[in-house]
Specification:
Elements lengths: L1 H17 L3 E6 L4 E4 L1 H7 L3 H4 L14 H14 L1 E9 L5 E12 L5 E10 L1 H15 L9 H18 L2 E9 L2 H8 L1 H16 L6 E7 L2 E9 L2 H14 L4 E3 L2 E3 L3 E8 L6 H17 L5 E3 L7 H13 L7 E10 L5 E12 L3 E3 L1 H11 L2 H21 L7 E4 L2 H5 L3 H12 L6 E6 H4 L3 H14 L2 E7 L6 H6 L4 E4 L1 H5 L5 H16 L3 E5 L4 H9 L4 E3 L9 H13 L4
Parallel strand pairs: 11-12, 14-16, 16-17, 17-18, 18-19, 19-20, 20-21
Antiparallel strand pairs: 1-2, 1-5, 3-4, 4-5, 6-8, 6-11, 7-8, 9-10, 13-14, 13-21, 14-15
Bound molecules: ligand C2E and magnesium ion (MG) (2 copies).
Length: 566
């Protein structure tokens, strides 16, 4: 008998020492009596450190008291409990374990000891995570798949709703992707999808979320946007990022994408509605010629949305070649010859028709689009100057309007220089018009900038003179050539004596400062006669010519050569 007991104790001991599971024995009060080597390996506590302590040295803080209460209730009623517990190692790391606790009772049924046996299941957990990832991710691009997109976007929408935030949902579809697959094979198609998803991912902020919905369709959720503009800017950036070709197995593949955008809460309150609407908007982008974005616009009646739509249209105006330039001649009053020309931008939009620059230039300024529009104007004007030079008109400068935002850009002078060089046009043929309100607020800085432009060789004019506030002392310091009197004064010359004397005074003063004067907006013979009598140098107005398309300008210049303008 004794022999047998010894053998059993020995076996118990062996098992206790060599078993892979951690084992901990406590007394009925939970004070640790003994632990095995596996316990020490997993928890980091030595037997010496653990014995005499309570098992709560291992508590991770992840489970609440409810969790432990239920565990102990089960042990008291059934004598055993098993489950997953997150514990904390001595070094502070948290780890998941599968734990079984047994109550050891004496003959009378009272608990004498508790035995806890546990397995560290960290590795198993990692494998589970991997599996989960597979089920929730698109294996090709590593992006979320439709399933997890739905789950996550739903919760994003809930959050947005409770915090009153805006959310944008994009629907992206590649243009003519099938052609790539058909021409270069499916492997190339896959590689392209991977490349393009990386390009898009690099443009997203960490609050944005992208998923591959299937095939060549993607969706992006932009949470907590302050203004729809943020969505438009991203859409634009995505479209631009596709301008460079994708290099797939040695081939340059050009790919573009069409994007549709819907907004929460304006366009819908649930993910399905928002996706359907973004999809519709995407379809409109395709219809309008692909490689562009559209926002869902059924509910765009109110003015706010109207401006947004206009902004979106304006963003794409250059690419769609909706912008053109009209040219208005400036006539030298004494000789009646064309002495200069002003370039005036025109926008003819597919939805709005002709939009006045008075309306869209402010919008372009507000949104920063003026910089790219301004560059476009400068380039176009230089090209037309080149053509005029080829026709033999090599001494008529063209004036370009420069908006304050452009003028204040750090690299404006550099931009002008670059474009002149690029188009190989002499700087003295470019006249830059700035308004008083552009140069006056920071007159000191303006003097410096104007000097830089003057040093390039450009002509400089102050536009709309008389409407802003001017400091005469500064006007003297500005290296300008022309003063353009605002058309409001010219048009009321006949009616208001005061305006006539203002015009008179401006002309006198300008001449003292050795500036030439251009009168804007002269429409009648009487106005011309008055301006002539006051020795105004040039006139730009409907009386001589409306702004003309380029070919009509060329005709006008030829006419000017052969006949005297009335
Ligand atoms: P602005 O620079 O003062 O241009 C003169 C405006 O007066 C032009 O209006 C022109 O068409 C108009 N005008 C000329 N002669 C007459 C006339 O006899 N009677 C009347 N009633 N109007 C006349 P437009 O083309 O509508 O341009 C309006 C403004 O838009 C321009 O005023 C300028 O500030 C801005 N703008 C035009 N093109 C550009 C551009 O390329 N860039 C920038 N930043 N602004 C531009
Ligand atoms: Mg002007
Ligand atoms: Mg003007």
């Amino acid at each position: 008998m004794t022999q047998q007991f010894i053998a059993r104790d020995k076996i118990n001991e062996l098992v206790f020492d060599y078993i892979q599971e951690g084992v901990m024995v406590t007394d009925s009060n939970g004070t640790i009596l003994s632990v095995n080597p596996a316990f020490q390996v997993v928890t980091g506590y030595s037997a010496k450190e653990a014995i005499g302590k309570q098992p709560n040295i291992l508590r991770s803080g992840i489970h609440d008291s409810n969790f432990y209460n239920q565990m102990w209730n089960k042990i008291r009623s059934d004598g055993v409990w098993s489950g997953e517990v997150w514990n904390k190692r001595k070094n502070g790391d948290l780890y998941p374990e599968w734990l079984t606790i047994l109550a050891v009772k004496d003959k009378s049924g009272s608990v004498t000891q508790y035995v806890g046996v546990f397995t560290d299941i960290t590795n198993q957990k990692t494998a589970e995570e991997e599996l989960k990832k597979l089920a929730h991710r698109d294996p090709l691009t590593g992006m979320a798949n439709r399933y997890s997109f739905n789950v996550r976007t739903k919760s994003l929408i809930e959050t947005s709703a409770s915090f009153g935030q805006k959310l944008a949902l994009f629907f992206l579809d590649l243009d003519r992707f099938k052609q790539v697959n058909d021409t270069f094979g499916h492997k190339a198609g896959d590689d392209l999808l991977v490349d393009m998803s990386n390009r898009i991912k690099s443009l997203l902020g960490n609050k944005d979320f992208i998923a591959r919905l299937g095939g060549d369709e993607f969706s992006i959720a932009l949470a907590n946007i302050r203004h729809p503009r943020e969505a438009f800017q991203l859409a634009e950036a995505i479209i631009q990022s596709f301008e460079k070709p994708f290099v797939i197995s040695g081939h340059d593949i050009y790919m573009s994408t069409s994007i549709g955008i819907s907004f929460f809460p304006e366009d819908g309150e649930d993910i399905d509605t928002l996706l359907v609407k973004a999809d519709k908007a995407m379809y409109e982008s395709k219809q309008n010629g692909r490689n562009q974005f559209s926002a869902y616009h059924e509910e765009m009646e109110n003015e706010n949305k109207e401006t947004l739509t206009m902004e979106m249209e304006l963003r794409q105006a250059i690419d769609r070649e909706e912008l053109t330039i009209n040219y208005q001649p400036q006539i030298h009053l004494k000789t009646k010859k064309v002495a200069g020309i002003e370039a005036l931008i025109r926008w003819n939009n597919r939805h709005y028709g002709r939009v006045s620059p008075e309306k869209f230039i402010p919008l372009a300024e507000e949104t920063g689009l003026i910089n790219s529009i301004g560059e476009w104007v400068l380039t176009k004007v230089c090209r037309d100057l080149k053509t005029l030079m080829q026709f033999g008109f090599d001494d008529v400068p063209i004036a370009v309007n420069v908006s304050p935002l452009q003028f204040l850009q750090g690299n404006f002078v550099e931009t002008v220089r670059r474009i002149l060089n690029q188009e190989n046009v002499p700087a003295q043929l470019l006249d830059l018009e700035v308004t008083e309100s552009t140069v006056m607020p920071d007159a000191k800085k303006s003097v410096h900038r104007l000097n830089e432009l003057k040093n390039l060789g450009c002509k400089l004019s102050i536009d709309d003179f008389g409407t802003g506030y001017s400091s005469l002392s500064y006007l003297r310091r500005f290296p300008i050539d022309n003063l353009k009197i605002d058309k409001s004064f010219i048009q009321s010359i006949d009616q208001y004596e005061d305006d006539a004397s203002i015009v008179e005074a401006i002309i006198t003063m300008a001449h003292r400062l050795h500036l030439k004067v251009i009168a804007e907006g002269a429409e009648s013979k009487r106005q011309i006669q008055f301006l002539y009598a006051e020795s105004c140098d040039y006139v730009q107005g409907f009386y001589y010519s409306k702004p003309l398309v380029f070919s009509d300008l060329v005709d006008f210049l030829y006419k000017d050569l052969t006949e005297q303008i009335e």
